[in-house]
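Q: I have 149 residues here and want to know how they pack in 3D. Can you give me a structure?
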Amino acid sequence: MNAKDVIINAIAGASLAFVGSIIISLFHAPKLLDDDRQKEIDRRDETIESLGRKPYDEKFQRMVREKMRNASPSAQELLKFMLDHGEMDINFVTISTGNHHAAGHECYCLGFLDKREFRPGNGLVARETYYKLKDNFHDVLKDIFYPGS
């Protein structure tokens, strides 16, 4: 074997190895792509499934619906108002079905609202009473007042 044969054999061997790796990759790459795509599909399926789940359980929803049945119409209207507007000074709440102060107190006693009182200045002037819907009631009340949203 002379140098010319060694070079030809080396080039032929390298070429054969290169072509062989390309052929193997042609069979192996689609499976890898399919595996990656299947992982992405599974991840999206989990996301879609989780969107269908409610962030609260059925027992909690029944308890809230029972409280809503026992609440006055003005309290129900105030809860919807608070759901739409967030924390508010009770003096600036407008409901059409009754006394907003009594409705605020009723919703607070039913456990739907958090209450924060503030006395501006030296504390001798009228107090401002702020109500805010408790976070754990937000989703279930949204589903009650706005079903399908």
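Q: Anything worth noting?
A: The longest strand covers residues 113-118. The two ends are 82 Å apart (CA to CA).
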